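Q: Second attempt. The first request was missing the SMILES, so the protein and zinc ion are both included now.
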Amino acid sequence: MNLLNFISQYPDEESCKLKLKAIRDKEGVVCRHCGGQDHYWKKDKWQYECKTCKTRTTLRSGTVMQGSQLPFRYWFVAMHLLTSTKKSFSAMELQRQLGHKYYEPIWAMLHKIRLAMGKRDGQYELSGQIELDEGFFATEVKPEEKGKPLKRGRGSQKKTKVLVMAESKKVEGKTTKKGRPRKVGFIKMQVIPDLKAETINERVTTNVSNKATVLTDDSTSYTDFENIVEKHQAQVIPKEKVGEVLPWVHLAISNAKRILLDIHHNIKPEFLQGYLNEFCYKFNRRYFGEAMFDRLLLVSATTKNDFRYRIR
Ligand SMILES: [Zn+2]
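A: Got both inputs this time. The predicted holo structure:
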């Protein structure tokens, strides 16, 4: 949706509330007290009332907006920008654009939406042929690691480990328009605490179909894959060939790193997953066009807020 359409569809607080109500009416409101699904609409209060036990449910309750004091329209603007911008934007930029006095609620709002994006994509199971590799993303050193001697390379405290998986179908005979040998489907990026085989096995079991074929380098972290998926193709990949053998994981990693570097510098390790959620969510819906906003609105209206962090 372009900016002018957005402004004319959601010119004020009421239009946003009405849209949210329409979504909730369609999806169904469940009483948190008795589980009842029949409600009256209390128009003067903008609340639902359970027909059985009279418990009230606000429009925000049970959504990512639960507990937030921010206007509904802020949430709509944030979701509009998250789905209409090619790259991303910082919380500080949005704070400035909204003219809001405090940074933290704007920052938290964006992270709550990113958490909902991650939950939505978490429901998807990757299938077919899948490229898999690890990326090492620059993040701030954790407070408990500060002052300790810095390790080098992959184990560095300045890097956070990310498991990257991309559905990647071989293009028969030739290459795609952009000259790539493989065509990409859905991707996932997950922060992992370490590179142990058991850690990675668990992620693959959760996120990848057991009928899939997984392509990797010959790392020892992947030695159990034969028991988890249908087929595991591991090969020694010289550095200069990585882009040919695993093109999409590497393109995804370098694009995500560039956005993080350009827009969200000095990332704390515990918030990296949120930015990756946003990157993957947008990538996975790259052909949705204007529908992406409505989808994100639906995700936000049907996902509970359990983001509990504060800026430290
Ligand atoms: Zn009830």
